[in-house]
Amino acid sequence: MSESLRAIAKMIDHSLLHPTLTDEDLATGCELAKKYNVASACVKTYAVPLAARILDGSDVLVSTVIGFPHGSHQVEIKEQEARLALDEGAAELDMVINIGKALSRDWDYIIREVTAINDICVERGAILKVIFETDFITADESRVKLCHICSDIGVAFVKTSTGYNYVKDAAGSMGYAGASDHVLKLMRRECPPSVQVKAAGKVKTLDDVQRVRSLGVTRIGATTTAEILEEARQRGFTD
Fold first, then answer.
1. How many Å apart are CA 174 and CA 85, to the nearest integer?
2. CA 20 to 30 Å from 182, out of 7, 57, 131, 135?
3. Which residues are catalytic?
4. Is domain 3-234 annotated with CATH 3.40.50.720?
5. Which pLDDT score, from 0 to 100, does residue 239 have?
6. Buried b (16+ CB within 10 A) or exposed e, 84-105
7. Structural domain spans, the chain
């Protein structure tokens, strides 16, 4: 790949998190991640050994999720989940904060759980991405507070969404905003350069990737990896 195409590919965590994905689906998805040489294949926790086996020897990392998707696991369970995932071959962990505690503004609890998982990652040379779930955490004041907490702790990434927590609107329809420009600008502004920003939720096209990149995003979560990178080829990002 040319440097420009590689730069797009290395922004992508290829998401393989849907609950209906079979082992065959997961294996196929990991092969796709390897083919396109993305940053990581993000798999369900039990699939970490499978992904590690398929991606062994490649330049694609294994990432997985902690406390996914609702963030409600006890801190001790998140710690055990993190250690086991790293033992089995994960190099990056995307952890959902305790959403109810954040909405309660129990910041001491949030500090405790993020610190606990980040300490494990630092000790093991792994990367932690902290998912705010900004469709639930809608107050900018709380989003800013979370950015400052994560910055003080020194996590590697802050992240918008899981893509799996939907909000009911007045008409009763379920949906989510995902990685809105407003939220991404806020996260980039309120975190130091040492803390990177990951956009997840509704980043589906090459134009979406380029737009969020212009806002300071360095990683995205995507299920449409092949479509994004094939479109990049068609638009002149040559091998």
1. 31
2. 7
3. 94, 159, 198
4. no
5. 67
6. ebbebbbbbbbbbbbbebbeee
7. 3-234
